[in-house]
Every structure is written in C-alpha cells, then in structure tokens.
Write a structure and sequence with these properties.
Layout lengths: L1 H16 L7 H78 L4 H66 L3 E5 L6 H7 L4 H8 L11 E5 L2
Antiparallel strand pairs: 1-2
Helix pairs in contact: 1-2, 2-3, 4-5
Length: about 220
C-alpha cells in the first residue's frame, strides 16, 4: 500500500515540476487528463486494498474472539476448581483452629498443628503448579487439534474429489457381459434383445461389418 501511495504522488510531483515553456496548452491539458486518470485508478486500487484489509481484520478479530472465548472457559473452570479447593482449605483451617484451641496448653501439640498447616499450604502450592501445567498442556492440545482439523478438512476434500472421479468413471463405463452367437442370430436381433442397437455392438466389439458366426462370443450390455 505504501508503494501505491508513492506511485500515486509521483505524477503530481512530476506534473508540478514541468515548465509551461516546454509544452503547449493542449499537451498540458492532455498530460493533466492522463495524470487525473492515473490518480483515479490509484485511488480505486487503494480503496480496494483498504476494503481487503478491513475484511482480513474482521476475520482475524473473529478468530481472536473465538480463542478468547475458549480461554475464558478454561479460566472459568480453573477458577471454579480453585474456589472448591479454597473452600476445602477453609474447612481444614477451621478444623486446625479448633485443634489449636484444644491443645493451647501443650506446646508440642501447637508445633504439630503448625507443621500440619504448613504441609497443607505446600500441597496447595504444588497443586496450583500442577493445574497451571495442565492448562498450558490443554492450550497446546487445542492448537494441535486445530491443525489436525485443518488437515482432516483437506483430506475430506481430496476423498470427495476421488469419489466423484470414481463415480464418473463408473457412469462412463457401462457393464457388459459375453453372449455366444446361436443359429439364426443376427447382430440386429441380438441388439434388440439387449435393448441397444447394432452400431453400439459393433463399437464395443470392434467389428467392421454386421457379419457374425455361430459360436462367436461378443460383448453385450447388461439390462
């Protein structure tokens, strides 16, 4: 687009730098018309490029919105699970407080409860780290599934094309069977019996004449 803008401005600079002494009024008018025509063409090209750019931006915004919705769903699930974990932790802490109230007279019991609380905090930190790793793994799998889906779409298109080609070949190649000529048979009689004509029988059997012999094997179309 930047190159087109430069190309759009060059005729104006060129035209403004020309001296009136070097060209007649008619040539100047003609040059001006050519320059204006060229400017209109460049403006149309710029409008087309801007329209294409807007379309691409809309498509990109749609994809970004789709990914944002997916991430929001994952985050929502993460938050819900975290709330459940925090509720469990809160209940555990309430239980720990009750135990601390019961063992205030014994320092050894207080230290034991503090160690237990610290252990729960470490487990929670470890669980959060694991959950974060799972979210990153889900994002990677999502990206992988997207690429596999694109590949499956391409494969589907290839299979559909192959199926259409096979169907066309099947339609273009009618089924035939072998018929053994009997006494009293003629090419015309055999053609009528198999709902076709002698010209078609001559074509598929590569015969130059209508003459056939008893015991001769020829191809006929199936009904």
């Amino acid at each position: 687009m930047k190159n087109k803008l430069i190309f759009f401005l060059l005729p104006i600079v060129f035209f403004s730098s020309c001296s009136p002494l070097k060209s007649s009024a008619r040539e100047s008018k003609h040059q001006m018309e050519l320059t204006l025509q060229e400017m209109r063409t460049n403006v149309d090209d710029l409008k087309h490029d801007i329209h294409c750019f807007k379309t691409e931006m809309e498509i990109l915004e749609g994809k970004i919105k789709h990914h944002e919705n997916t991430l929001c769903q994952l985050k929502q699930g993460y938050v819900e699970k975290q709330e459940e974990r925090w509720e469990g932790m809160f209940k555990e802490m309430q239980e720990i407080k009750k135990k601390l109230a019961q063992v205030e007279q014994g320092r050894s019991n207080e230290i034991k409860d503090i160690k237990q609380l610290s252990s729960h905090a470490n487990e929670t930190t470890f669980s959060l780290t694991q959950f974060k790793d799972k979210i990153e793994e889900l994002e990677k799998q999502f990206s992988l599934h997207s690429r596999k889906y694109d590949e499956m779409l391409k494969l589907k298109g290839t299979l559909e094309t192959l199926s259409l080609n096979l169907q066309k070949e099947a339609n273009d190649s009618p089924l035939v069977k072998i018929y053994k000529v009997r006494a009293g048979d003629s090419l015309e009689k055999i053609a009528k019996a198999h709902q076709t004509n002698s010209q078609y029988l001559k074509k598929i059997n590569q015969l130059d004449k209508d003459l056939i012999q008893v015991g001769q094997e020829i191809k006929v179309p199936t009904k």
